[in-house]
Design brief:
mainly beta, eight-stranded antiparallel β-sheet, two-stranded antiparallel sheet, 3 helices, globular
């Protein structure tokens, strides 16, 4: 099947490439089908492209690459919804990035990660009841230091 994208033009994808987000994403609740596109091989960056809307594409990153101490404790309801097995859970956790004009000032939303069961092709944006994280953690060291000095 083909999908239209603003960044990549038309892409040929398999139905098996589609990740289903039963609840959509916050602010995009009607968008339920996405594909995950790595920026390049072995890169911590990904695009989450809507399979229906060419103009809906989010830049994501592996938060553990940039924030080694990052932790996510999924609620039981999320584990059930994503059909995640207890042993060897086939999940990936990604953070939505906000990229201003200067890429070096990119921030990561660590408060509400995208969680995907890669085997079942099920995903959601997990928003915990209680968290110490926020939506704008500086991604790069220089800005992390500046943010810490400002506290």
């Amino acid at each position: 099947m083909q999908i239209k994208t603003a960044l990549f033009g038309e892409l040929d994808i398999s139905a098996n490439d589609i990740i289903h987000f039963p609840e959509g994403l916050p602010a995009f609740e009607t968008e339920k089908q996405f594909i995950l596109i790595p920026l390049e091989e072995n890169s911590p960056f990904f695009y989450l492209q809507s399979a229906k809307r060419a103009d809906l594409c989010l830049l994501l990153a592996d938060p553990f690459t940039f924030f080694p101490g990052y932790q996510v404790e999924l609620a039981d309801a999320v584990i059930k919804q994503l059909e995640i097995p207890e042993e060897n859970p086939p999940i990936i956790v990604l953070s939505v990035l906000t990229v201003p004009g200067n890429f070096k000032k990119t921030t990561a939303n660590l408060m509400a990660p995208i969680v995907i069961n890669i085997e079942k092709k099920l995903g959601l944006q997990f928003i915990p009841q209680k968290t110490d994280y926020n939506t704008k953690h500086p991604l790069f060291s220089e800005n992390k230091k500046s943010a810490q000095e400002g506290k």
